[in-house]
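Need DUF7918 domain-containing protein's 3D structure for a figure. Predict it.
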Amino acid sequence: MPTFKGITAEVYIDGKPTVEYATKKKGRICETYIVAEEGKEYKVKLQFGRTGAPRHGLDFDVDGQNLARWTTDMKAFDIAGGRYCYRKMGKVGWWEYRTLRFESLKIDRTGGSRDLEHRKSRSDNIGKMELKIQREHLEALEINLPCKERNFSPLGTISEKDMQSRGLSHGTALGDTTTNWSMDYSQLRVRDFDWLSRRYAQFIIYYASKEMLQAKGIIPMDPKVDQDLVGLDLTQLRTEVMRLREKKKTYWWWPFGRSKNYDDEKSTKKAICKESENIVDEKARCEMFEDIDDFP
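Structure prediction for DUF7918 domain-containing protein:
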């Protein structure tokens, strides 16, 4: 992800940085696209440069659900997990965070699923990460503020029609590995620098399979390979190239300006004859003409 307003946000999949496509910057928002890899874990790495603030607040939403909310004074910060569930340990409550993972969407092909995703706030944001960043500074200590966040809620089934029309393929699930624990009350009171808008910068990262992004025109299509050329040796490939070159030659008939291509069979024979001139071994030369009637 390019640096935006002094902040760099980059997604790592299995420890490797992703490639971003169609990155756009406008106002306080930076948008980009990445390829989701089925079943692989990911994290978001942040680097804070010159923003004019001693600390920053982070809100991390995925598929329309808030998974992390932090305040930090570090220059480098990793979002490696999402808020999974609340656990009571004696008189103190803790939030368990688990690893983030790409997972294929459950598809309803018949229209009779009982687990269809009806939450508009979720269904409208599938395949979308939002990282909202605020500039903050420390004001005073504060304790015993109960956290009102909710446990992680997985996505329901998505209709096949909706999935195809919107180019969706993956959502985010939480893994089995715990990344960290967080107490259920805040110990820091912070004040926003940008109190009128609250948000200093926002990164929006859309993710889907490579095929879906290609269908939407975000990623260029892979070049097609002619299956007839697979398995040909160097001599055969040279012959085919020469045949195509000969085929492109045209005659111009005045006054009509129309062209006439060489006959395919004639062009092939001519190309093979020309290629055979460089072959000294008579046996190899004969093998090239074993299917040609007019052997020279």
